[in-house]
Amino acid sequence: MQDNLYDCPEYPLLLILSGPSGVGKDTVARMLIERRPDSFYFVVTATTRPPRDNERDGLDYFFVNFDEFAHMIETNELLEYAIVYNDYKGIPKQQIRDALASGRDVILRVDVQGAATVRHLIPNAISVFLTTRTEGGLVRRLHQRKQDTQEGMALRTATARQEMKRLAEFDYCVVNPEGRPEVAVERVLSIIDAAHCRTHQEPVRL
Amino acid sequence: MQDNLYDCPEYPLLLILSGPSGVGKDTVARMLIERRPDSFYFVVTATTRPPRDNERDGLDYFFVNFDEFAHMIETNELLEYAIVYNDYKGIPKQQIRDALASGRDVILRVDVQGAATVRHLIPNAISVFLTTRTEGGLVRRLHQRKQDTQEGMALRTATARQEMKRLAEFDYCVVNPEGRPEVAVERVLSIIDAAHCRTHQEPVRL
């Protein structure tokens, strides 16, 4: 008897990690990579906004000036870009192609509007909406950041409230409990592991 | 500001655990229940076949005679039933209703043909096809059981080979590595956890 192989075809996947401003996307994304540094690739977003105190160029973001950003747009190097709070943010394509080619899953931390664009361009991306359990929890997080003027805070809160309404556009919804991001990390790991077990998989193309 | 709730609606789910004869469905199902006895309910199949040495009535199967089985068919108490190797097997409905009503996820160990019937009746069931990595691995398992005549073994092997071809009908495919069922158990747990995070969920109805 010939020894047929029964494995399902398995491809690296692209995970969109999104959610409203302040929900903890950065923390969860960082912890995911720490859990499986050899399996996951974290896409570093290019941005024209200045770095926050704890942010490192090339790791948290690529901090670029407006001219550099304009060049990336012109050469079609960005999967998606947007103006967020008067600054540009964009996702360099080549990073994603390289990571997928190396067999790693790609984790894309992106705002809600950007997630919609990426889902449109890459329909077989897995999309996760990170959320707090209540609106009050989200507002508390935004206040804890203490990086905004009162006016900026009002804008962020209103935006977050609108973003929350777009939950249904996503495949998955994961609650990020205050002070316990490891709970959300475990859920996202399950979503990734389950996705690798799907019988019907297609390679991500971009 | 009112404190809106952001949780996604979450319902107990029905997991179909299937795969070819000999792949290890019983072991994986038992280990799943042991891992989360308060969250999972294992549906006990009714069968007219005699118990194997290690099987206990009411736990592994409900062992019934042909008259009792006929009564269950007549009173429409079975979700699905079939003749398997000259014996009847069937899934009592009321168990599933009770388990779902108590908030537990229902795990249904069922053969490949039965899985097709259940998927048809309950389209939002999550279906998992348990497999070995190779056909040779499956045949070795069947031989290890040592419970069959040579003729019975040939029948089981041929059946298993046909069943393997139906993998694509399932949502998920999980390899059960020989001697390491805990690997398959972890994968199935991820599939269940991920399913509970879906943004679009409907209650199971039967």
Explain what you see.
By secondary structure, the first copy, chain A, is α/β, with parallel strands linked by helices. Chain A has a domain at 14-43 and 105-196: Rossmann fold. Chain A contains 7 helices and 9 strands, in the order βαβββαββαβαβααβα. Chain A has helices spanning 25-35, 66-74, 93-101, 112-121, 135-145, 150-164, 181-196; strands at residues 14-18, 40-42, 45-47, 61-63, 78-84, 87-92, 105-109, 126-131, 172-175. In chain A, the strands form 2 sheets. In chain A, strands 2-7-1-8-9 form a 5-stranded parallel sheet, sandwiched between helices. In chain A, strands 4-3-6-5 form a 4-stranded mixed sheet. In chain A, helix 1 packs across helix 7 and helix 5 runs antiparallel to helix 6 (150-164). The longest helix of chain A is centred in the C-terminal third of the chain and has 16 residues, at 181-196. The mean pLDDT of chain A is 89. The A-B interface holds A 1-8, 128-129, 131-136, 138-139, 164, 167-168, 170-175, 186-187, 189-191, 193-195, 197-200 and B 1-8, 128-129, 131-136, 138-139, 164, 167-168, 170-175, 186-187, 189-191, 193-195, 197-200.
